[in-house]
Write a structure and sequence with these properties.
Chain lengths: 502, 100, 416, 636, 192
């Protein structure tokens, strides 16, 4: 694999990254050349971003079709296989939807800065690299690329103390997690030398090879635990979830939507690859992962029940969704269920992205004139004012609750089957029971939005429709339903899941 | 020659101190410094292990993590400054608009 | 037992049993020669330097200057030191006591230790096999000498910031802040200028950098006269721009006029050392001058050929290398004084603009122009260029392998 | 008649499409003139809505009628018992891959039981959509949701894959939930959520059970699982009785909540009462609970059914009596009807668990009757409430004088509800009592007590429903109601078809019984002790037989255990059971190890001896030369 | 490590010299402390408020930007050291890679420039930015020196030693008129 071939294989990431740079400097350059910063920047930045994302997505699709085998780029630091390309596509989807949402949100909040789009693109680059990383150090750098952009996005509402507070909390805990991750990597580097004279390595495929042919060392396992903690923070799994509600509540809604999806998708892509590598030593960690899964599901769901703030509720629900996804992590230990677990996790990640983007997107849609629509009270009776938004919200809530015929159901069902195939019936039953609890609070949102009377008389809605946010929500909704009824991607994802074992 | 295990013990101690500091401290800057301590503990471990194995990788990784830490510093200080300008305090206990 | 540590032990023997002089490993002693020499030069030149500055400034301003204490006022610095030693050491209210004392201490320590890597000459040794080793005379003949120098020049700002912060004085604080912002701003430009040199020399060892200048300019075929001459030094090889950048950055790094904003007396009383008195003030003062000496020394080493004579012919080669080195340093010092006497102080925004918007991008672009130039001059065939200066070894071989070392003249047959 | 391919899919997805179209129509205005019913003035949007609702639902009903007409009541002209139901109009596609060659299938098919429910659904949705399109608030949305509900219900009635069934089962929840929650009474939100959560609790457990069944058998195919000869059935019934009982319990809980059966009925009064009239109708239409009992529980868990039938019968009887008594003491007209539903559904459950042909047939008829009668009552009450603004008995009375037509139509509903002969209620409830009588002769409940106690329910129903009618329609008319109008232009067509059908079901019962008789025959578990004596093909399905079958599969080495120990191959002597044959005789790859066996006709077991010994004796010579006759699974 | 030992020796010698210089006059000089002598020197005015005050954001900004560029320099050094010794093909590749690296950095640099992070002409920049975007670039709080809200000098904080003649007024004399104000303002426990 020469360098130019590696670069070629990495082209989707490069396209997104270069677009990010262009978007970043476009605005200052405009202020120099045309002495006008405000007017065209929104169009320039967002359309540039969308073009970049679209190009990258096209290229990724082309690669999926073109590459019959895994590409190990840059001396095996990155692996471009169907799995990473599929995750990249999910990430690009969420980025595109987030760009659409941001176009309206930022304008409503008088915050029309091109950096936001650049940050979206940079964090997407980080996420895509996380999915492709075949080396723990690359994973670390990618993780930080993702996180740093997200920290800034969380604090993007500079005049809001809540936004800044969210950014601070996210940043401190994220940096803490990064410390764990890096130290774990160091320990793995030391622990991967199973015998004297064998050098240390951080390459995941090398570690996998060594684990298949030798005993795991203590240092390796300790490092694995620390890396797990680090990634668990990013994925908001339960003992490491404290930041999630505060951050999602405080951050600008469009940023909450984006970070809820991207961070989780990327973290789970990394977790899947990492734990698959560690699967030969699963006796050490399977118990912990199971406990984390069950705790995440139940703690997330139970805490979500009492929330009045929808963003906060969605945050807790995202913890629960992380718990559902963790069952797939537990399931990859069984050789017979690996393929099913990977494809289930991939499908669920796509589902999660679409429905969370949609749910937050409806909040963005309803946030007009700088007022954030956040609480159940804000949502009361919006069906009379904004029937489309209310019904779309209902679709997303039902999908989040895993109720057919939506994508959420199919995803949950696939996870469920994978868990059973892996011989973990306890987890499967916990999954079912947790989604039962979840139904309650999702229904509360529908109740507030569709069933309750609004507090004040519905004002005549003469404002122009937030076009782009509407487009974003509608895309999410259509796919949530369509893929819930005809899950055509599953087969592709199965191939993607299997690509890991080639 | 100092045995590698000494370095590892040192790095573990630093890491534990950093972790404890993050959990105990109330000033974000102090917390942040503790996080840097954790990262540097990892760097020490990397360099020591790289030397132990006779590989250049360890030192290379340390430089990577330095770069990342620098980026983190920039972002972190920016956030802390922003919150101080809004709230006139950066004490974690007083920064509690978002209910726990 | 390592060589140097063994030497430390042997010193004890040297004093008691002179017969041990016989088997001493002389190359290992060279660093201590370098240490003593640079220390003596720095501390010895310090009072003289103050005198020079006063006299030169006075001349430029058409006045007399110091003329009372000693011949031509030469003893004036000594008198100042004695006076300062016997002044009251005031400790202002509410200072952070530890940091308040630490600041001057740190400034001085760092200023002196920065000199550890400056080579001020070279000695050639020949081993039993007849190979010649050129050893630079410096305390720290280390691989990362340039990084060390850079690190020390960055660390020096700690003294100023801590002084400003601990003094409990608003002027001091602002002075310290200005100093830190200024130093870090110019450090980038300085670093980029140094990078140009590193790119040309291919080494961070200052001895090797000097030796890399000891060749025919641009590889042209010229008479031996020009080998290592004025024209092959890096000021010209790097095509002048980095020298200019470095020289400006050097003045700014030492907070000297016209970049003396941290201690601008018209705005900030005395900046970061407003609250310091007696010898603590003198410590800052001395540290600044030592910094000037050493940064000029670095300038001389990396751009102006270090200990090399300007031409490789008789009248110049007769003069020892350290004299040439001293002359180059003093020219730097003269430049400092000249600038102080000639230029008004910069406004702060102009200062930052110069550093960030002019010198940094120009330096970076220049670095890549040099890289491209170097690439163009590389032959397209062949595996690799030879090591830059094979005659210089960073650390001489240990006595275990070669005991018979004979000191020979530095410039006779040394190197290729 | 040839099956029309795609007809079922059209029936399912056409309403969904129509619902989207309806949602895209302009929203009708809400202005209304003083003292006027229905829309005021010219409202193009409302006319458009009414007409399109009528048009769409009529198209759907016509399709359902085509389905009914094309349906063959007994394609093989044989009483095929013990092999599970025979399905027609089958559609089978792979849908969600599960790895290892396993799929969640899009597998549809109907028998008589389903078809009548589909017809009922289409008809009632038609009338209620017409009614809903007149609503002052949310007319457009209600019609759209009703159409969605229609699609979901038809899907649930025709799904032959457990996951597909679950999916449609859940999908029906959403429109109902939205209708109840948005357009009901003051406590509608709470009631809707209560309804949703109760049902969802049950269905989640059902999902667990479905997954477990897949885990143990490797298939979701309802037909395979209902066929005692299939490997899937054998694999399932090899499990420990405790586990099977748990699985059955999960299904039964889901269906009991949905039906609703006595202790799980508490969501019902709230939801029925708080819902708008259309919502109540929608809730009544949710017959998926009963259907699930019949389609899934009876055959898949035949042994458990046999064990637990008395228990369910007791619960059903309690429901009958309890519902009737509670209904008698209500002061709210709608709540009374709601509780009467508990009572009626109690009859249905008793009929199903009598495990006799007559009882099951009665239960299904009672189910249909309830699906016609209660909508009539609810819609009529809705019209009443619209006029009077109240449902409380103390404010009402004597309305017969101002609205004679409504009174007459409601009287038909009343009679049907109290099971007067020639009305639909009677033809449902009387066979149920008969069936319970037969079954109590063999079961442990005891001689005549079940029948006797259930019979009191009929007496109670006469008490409460007549009293209900009296308090509404008879007696003095309050002055305020003196000017109330009778049925309007759009209200006639709502109530009259229902009333007519009640008569038709009560009088022309044989039209309804004929398509169901064979399915009922096939749906009674072969192990049902109650029908063993009076049916020639009765057989005893016991644990020993299951063990032997399973071992035979193992010995022939054709059982594939990956990934979860699923037997999908059949020993040479055992043919793929009819219910597993896809339409067109195509055997899915991997199902039959021997391609020659494809044309082997299905030997139909219609002798006792066939069932009394294990079905593993392999014929030495393959009867490949025998001309192929259509296998039982599809009506060619 | 051998060649580092003289460097450490040099550092130790430097520290010794510094120690002697810092503490020399503390040993030799006279000691006559006084309250006014000990107060911070602010051009002769009575110092008010704390010296630990907020200072312009620009300093932070410069520090942050510096970190980024400094790290970039870290990556340039190994490249520069090895560049000269590489064969042509590798050299060309390294050159292009580093050009890309620095180009990305330059993009960031352009961004910083465009956003005005390196402009120190405060007033014009703020006025201009306010014209453009009144909300995002809200006026920064003024640079304060702490004397706006500070109350009277707290007498307890001034250590008053033995009455020695010092320059000008004594500490007590300086604070005399302020003392009454202080007593009036404080809701002390004696009043209750």
């Amino acid at each position: 694999m020469t360098n130019s071939q590696s670069l070629h294989a990495l082209l989707p990431v490069l396209i997104v990254g270069i677009t990010g740079i262009l978007v970043m400097i476009a605005e200052p350059c405009m202020s120099w050349w045309w002495q006008d910063r405000r007017a065209p920047s929104r169009w320039l930045s967002s359309s540039l971003s969308l073009i970049g994302i679209g190009l990258a997505a096209c290229y990724a699709v082309a690669q999926i079709n073109a590459y019959a085998r895994n590409i190990y780029a840059f001396n095996g630091a990155l692996v471009i296989d169907h799995f990473s390309l599929s995750v990249s596509l999910v990430l690009l989807t969420s980025a595109a939807l987030a760009v659409l949402l941001a176009m309206n949100y930022l304008e409503e909040h008088k915050l029309n800065l091109g950096e936001y789009y650049a940050l979206i693109l940079f964090s997407t680059v980080g996420g895509m690299l996380m999915a492709m990383a075949n080396d723990l150090i690359v994973l670390f750098v990618a993780l930080e690329t993702l996180s740093l952009a997200l920290y800034v996005m969380a604090g993007f509402l500079r005049t809001s103390a809540r936004s800044e507070e969210a950014a601070l909390k996210y940043f401190l805990l994220g940096a803490f997690a990064a410390g764990f991750f890096l130290y774990g990597t160091a320990l793995i580097y030391g622990g991967s030398a199973q015998a004297a004279g064998m050098g240390g390595t951080t390459s995941l495929s090398e570690i996998a090879f060594r684990l298949q042919h030798g005993e795991p060392t203590f240092l390796l396992m300790a490092g694995m635990a620390l890396v797990l903690i680090g990634l668990g923070f990013k994925a908001a799994l339960v003992p490491f979830h404290m930041w999630t509600p505060d951050v999602y509540e405080g951050a600008p809604t469009s940023a909450s939507a984006y970070m809820a999806c991207t961070a989780k998708v990327a973290a789970f892509a990394a977790l899947l690859r990492f734990l698959w590598v560690m699967a030969p030593a699963h006796a050490f960690w399977i118990g912990a992962v199971e406990i984390i899964a069950v705790l995440s599901m139940f703690v997330g769901n139970l805490l979500a029940i009492t929330q009045e703030n929808v963003k906060r509720m969605l945050a807790y629900s995202s913890i629960a969704h992380a718990g559902y996804l963790t069952t797939a992590l537990a399931a990859i230990t069984s050789t017979s269920a690996q393929g099913a677990a990977f494809s289930a996790a991939l499908f669920y990640l796509l589902a999660y992205t679409l429905m969370t983007m949609g749910a937050f997107g409806v909040l963005v849609y309803l946030s007009r004139r700088g007022h954030d629509c956040q609480t159940l009270t804000d949502l009361r009776g919006i069906v009379q004012r904004e029937p489309i938004a209310a019904y779309l919200l209902a679709i997303f809530m039902l999908s989040l609750g895993g109720i057919p015929p939506t994508m959420g159901f199919v995803g949950k069902w696939l996870l469920f089957v994978a868990t059973l195939q892996a011989g973990l019936p306890g987890l499967a039953i916990a999954l079912a029971l947790a989604s039962l609890i979840a139904a309650y609070y999702y229904l509360r949102v529908i109740w507030a939005a569709c069933f309750q009377e609004p507090l004040e008389a519905a004002p005549a809605s003469s404002e122009p429709l937030p076009t782009w946010a509407t487009a974003s929500i509608c895309i999410s909704a259509v796919f949530t339903l369509l893929l819930g009824i005809v899950p055509v991607f599953v087969n592709t994802l199965m191939t993607a899941g299997r690509s890991m074992f080639r | 020659m100092v045995p590698t295990s000494y370095y590892l013990v040192l790095s573990a101690l630093l890491f534990i101190i950093g972790t404890a500091g993050v959990l105990v401290r109330r000033n974000p800057i102090q917390i942040f410094m503790c996080v840097e301590l954790m990262l540097n503990a990892a760097n020490i471990a990397f360099v020591a292990l790289g030397r132990h194995f006779g590989q250049i990788n360890g030192q290379m990784y340390a430089i990577f993590s330095l770069a990342v830490a620098a980026a983190e510093v920039s972002v972190g200080l920016g956030i802390i400054v922003a919150i101080f300008r809004l709230r006139e305090t950066i004490n974690i206990d007083e920064v509690n608009l978002l209910k726990q | 037992m390592t060589t140097q540590a063994g030497l430390l032990q042997k010193w004890y023997n040297l004093f008691i049993f002179p017969e041990y002089w016989h088997g001493i490993h002389l190359p290992s002693l060279v660093p201590y020669l370098g240490l003593v020499g640079i220390l003596a030069f720095a501390l010895g030149m310090l009072p003289f330097l103050i005198w020079i500055e006063r006299v030169v400034v006075a001349l430029m301003q058409d006045r007399i200057g110091p003329n009372r204490v000693g011949p031509r006022g030469l003893m004036q610095p000594a008198a100042d030191v004695i006076k300062l030693f016997f002044k009251e050491d005031i400790r202002p209210r509410d200072v952070d006591r530890f940091l308040y004392f630490l600041a001057p201490f740190l400034s001085m320590t760092i200023a002196i230790s920065a000199g550890a890597v400056l080579p001020w000459g070279s000695i050639a040794f020949r081993d039993a096999a007849g190979r010649v080793f050129l050893v630079p005379i410096t305390a720290g003949n280390i691989n990362v000498a340039l990084l060390y120098a850079l690190a020390m020049s960055s660390l020096s700002v700690y003294g100023l910031v801590l002084a400003g912060w601990s003094s409990n004085n608003k002027y001091s604080l602002l002075g310290g802040l200005r100093a830190s912002a200024q130093v870090i701003s110019y450090e980038l430009a300085m670093g980029v200028a140094l990078l140009c040199v590193v790119l040309l020399a291919g080494s961070l060892n200052l001895g090797q950098i000097v030796e890399a200048q000891n060749q025919l300019p641009f590889g042209w075929h010229l008479p031996a006269l020009f080998k290592g001459s004025l024209f092959s030094w890096f000021w010209l090889q790097s095509l002048v721009v980095p020298v200019v950048i470095y020289t400006i950055a050097m003045v700014a790094e030492t907070n000297r006029p016209p970049f003396d904003l941290p201690e601008a007396e018209s705005e900030l009383v005395a900046g970061y050392h407003t609250e310091y008195s007696a010898m603590k003030f003198a410590t800052f003062f001395a540290a600044e001058y030592i910094n000037m000496l050493l940064i000029s020394g670095l300038n001389a080493t990396i751009f102006w050929g270090g200990w090399l004579p300007p031409f490789n012919c008789v009248p110049f080669t007769l003069i020892p290398g350290f004299v040439w080195f001293g002359i180059k340093i003093m020219m730097g010092i003269y430049l400092y004084v000249w600038l102080r006497a000639s230029l008004p102080r910069l406004r702060y925004d102009a200062l930052m603009q110069l550093g960030w918007k002019r010198m940094l991008p120009i330096g970076l672009i220049w670095l890549f122009l040099l890289g491209g130039y170097s690439l163009l001059r590389t032959p397209k065939t062949g595996t690799a260029l030879p090591a830059p200066t094979p005659s210089i070894v960073p650390t001489p071989p240990t006595p275990r392998h070669s005991i018979q070392f004979m000191p020979i003249s530095a410039r006779q047959g040394g190197g290729k | 008649m040839q099956p029309i391919s795609g007809l079922l899919s059209a029936l399912i997805f056409l309403p969904v499409l129509e619902s989207i179209i309806i949602m895209l129509l302009p929203r009708p205005g809400t202005e209304q003139k003083e003292g006027q019913l229905g829309p005021g003035g010219f409202d193009f949007a409302r006319d458009l809505l009414v007409n399109s609702a009528l048009l769409f639902t009529t198209i759907n009903l016509l399709l359902a009628i085509v389905l009914f007409g094309a349906y063959h009541p007994n394609p093989l002209a044989l009483p095929v018992r013990g092999l599970g139901p025979v399905m027609q109009f089958r559609e089978r596609l792979n849908w969600i891959p599960l790895g290892g060659g396993h799929w969640v299938e899009y597998h549809l098919g109907v028998d008589g039981i389903s078809i009548l429910l589909i017809l009922l659904t289409n008809l009632v949705i038609l009338v209620s959509a017409v009614y809903a399109s007149q609503a002052k608030r949310g007319a457009r949305e209600m019609v759209a949701l009703l159409l969605l509900l229609e699609g979901g219900l038809i899907g649930a009635y025709s799904a032959l894959d457990l996951v597909l069934f679950y999916l449609f089962y859940e999908a029906t929840l959403i429109p109902t939930y939205l209708i109840v929650g948005q357009y009901g009474g003051p406590e509608r939100g709470k009631a809707a959520i209560k309804f949703f959560l109760y049902t969802f609790l049950g269905s989640v457990l059902m999902l667990v059970a479905i997954a477990a069944i897949y885990h143990y058998t490797g298939t979701f195919d309802i037909l395979a699982l209902s066929n005692p000869n299939s490997a899937a059935f054998a694999a399932l019934h090899r499990l420990s009785p405790h586990l099977l009982m748990l699985l059955f319990g999960a299904f039964a809980l889901a269906f009991a909540i949905k039906t609703p059966l006595f202790p799980f009925h508490t969501w019902l009064p709230d939801a029925y009462v708080e819902a708008p009239a259309v919502g109540s109708v929608a809730l009544v239409l949710l017959k998926t609970g009963v259907y699930g009992f019949v389609r899934i529980c009876l055959l898949i868990f035949s042994a458990q059914i046999n064990q637990l039938a008395p228990f369910f019968i007791v619960l059903g009887i309690i429901g009958i009596v309890y519902g009737a008594i509670v209904a008698s003491i209500q002061n709210d007209a709608k709540r009374l009807v709601a509780y009467s539903s508990v009572s009626h559904m109690g009859f249905v459950v008793v009929g199903i668990f009598s495990l006799t042909r007559i009882g099951l047939m009665g239960a299904l008829l009672a189910n249909l009757s309830h699906g016609l009668t209660t909508p009539l009552l609810f819609l009529g009450l809705g019209m009443l409430e619209e006029r009077c603004g109240t449902r409380l008995f103390r404010d009402l009375g004597g309305l017969r004088k101002v609205m004679p037509t409504l009174a007459t139509l409601l009287l038909i509903g009343t009679f049907s509800s109290m099971a007067v002969p020639f009305f639909s209620g009677f033809v449902g409830e009387f066979p149920v009592l008969l069936g319970s009588w037969i079954s109590s002769q063999t079961a442990t409940v005891g001689n005549f007590w079940p029948t006797a106690v259930a019979g009191t329910g009929m007496i109670f129903s006469a008490v409460y429903i007549l009293w209900w009618y009296q308090r509404l329609m008879l007696g003095p008319l309050p002055e305020t109601y003196r000017k109330l109008p009778d049925l309007g232009r759009y209200e006639w067509p709502v109530l009259v078809p229902l009333a007519a059908l009640i008569f038709w079901l009560g009088i022309g019962t044989h039209y309804w019984v004929r398509p169901m008789s064979l399915p009922v025959e096939q749906t009674i578990p072969a192990s049902s002790e109650a029908v063993r004596d009076d049916l020639p093909v009765a057989t005893l399905l016991n644990q020993q037989w299951i063990e032997e079958t399973y071992q035979a599969h193992r010995e022939h080495g054709t059982i594939r255990l990956a990934p979860t120990g699923i037997p999908t191959h059949f020993p040479p002597g055992v043919h793929p059971p009819s219910s597993m044959m896809p339409p067109g005789g195509r055997i899915p790859a991997g199902l039959s190890p021997n391609p020659q066996r494809r044309s082997v006709p299905q030997g139909l077991p219609f002798s006792n001896s066939r069932f009394s010994r294990p079905m593993v004796s392999p014929p030495k010579t393959p009867r490949a030369t025998t001309p192929a006759v259509p296998s039982g699974g599809n009506a060619k | 490590m051998d060649s580092y030992i003289p460097v450490f020796v040099m550092i130790v010698i430097g520290a010794l010299i510094a120690f002697v210089m810092v503490f020399g006059s503390a040993l030799l000089g006279p000691k006559k402390p006084g309250a006014v002598k000990a107060s911070p020197y602010e051009c002769g005015m009575t110092p008010v408020g704390s010296a630990r005050e907020r200072f312009p954001i620009k300093f932070y900004l410069v520090a942050m930007i510096f970190i980024v560029f400094d790290v970039e320099t870290i990556f340039l050094y190994p490249w520069a050291v090895n560049y000269r010794h590489l064969p042509y093909a590798l050299k060309a590749f390294n050159y292009i890679e580093m050009v890309i690296f620095v180009a990305i950095l330059f993009a960031g640099y352009l961004y910083i420039l465009g956003k005005g992070a390196l402009d120190w002409g405060e007033e014009e920049a703020v006025a201009e930015a306010l014209k453009r975007d009144p909300i995002v670039l809200a006026p920064r709080p003024a640079i304060r020196f702490g004397n706006e809200n500070s109350g009277p000098v707290d007498l307890e904080k001034i250590p008053v030693g033995p009455r020695v003649p010092v320059y000008g007024a004594s500490a007590q004399e300086l604070c005399q008129p302020l003392e009454q104000t202080t007593v009036r303002l404080l809701p002390t426990g004696e009043e209750r």
